Amino acid sequence: MTSPIEDAILSILAEQPAGKSIDPAQVAKQLQPERWQRILGQVRSTAVGMARQGQVVILRHNKPADPDSFKGVYRIRLPQSE
Q: What is the pTM of this model?
């Protein structure tokens, strides 16, 4: 069962060209346009969970980051097939 945040992350990523990443704020703004800052923490924890499962990749400075230890600003993208 997926959450609305997971659904939003995957749907926004599906609209992007291959290899492009998204800003977590895009997800929050889609779900709560008026008070999007309030759910940024939930977006982050959902993205971390999805990264642990291999559904998405967390990026820091445009490089894959460890979902358990990254800090600061990040972006989200789909895993790229090698």
A: 0.93
